[in-house]
Amino acid sequence: MYYRPEDGHGLPHNPFNAIVSPRPIGWISTRGTGGGDNLAPYSFFNAVAYEPPQVMFSSTSAKADRGDTKDSVANIRETGVFCVNIVEYAARDAMNETSGPWPATEDEFMRAGIERADCTEIACSRVAGAPANLECRVTQIVKLEGAHNFAVFGEVVGVHIREDCLVDGMFDVTRFHPLSRMGYRDYAVIREVFALNRPGEK
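The line above is the sequence of Flavin reductase family protein; the predicted structure tokens follow.
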């Protein structure tokens, strides 16, 4: 089949998210200027540069109590910082609980029973037991096409790695099984990896 998104796809559900998958999940923690913590997962997330290390995530909807966006972007606008918490398979239910449309005053750490820890470089909480946490300072927030679409870019200024995830000096994802987002309501988990040498490498 072929379709133009502006004309619609004619299917029971939008296939776009399923086509662009699997996608890593950025479990974004923020803190508002009033001191309240927020935690929410975003599957439009990825690393975008090595030097300096940079990441991005996109928020694509809004809440009535946050105007044109959601809690994460609203908090980041106020403070200029956020933390990316890597999601492991064991945290799937807690991650899912934090995806709800809760009021801006709701503390998702408390709601989902997640232990928090302070970040080191920024004024923000992080998921204490996550395989890794990336403390970020915002470099830019880009308004995308669409009423509520914002891409947030940040420079990673601090990295926490859980000790059991380091094997022979390398971050081993098979120690915690990263969760990734597929299309619709589907997720996937990584349990096996393989290596490929680039052309010319030995």
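Note on the example: The chain has one domain: 16-189. The first strand starts at residue 23 and ends at 24.
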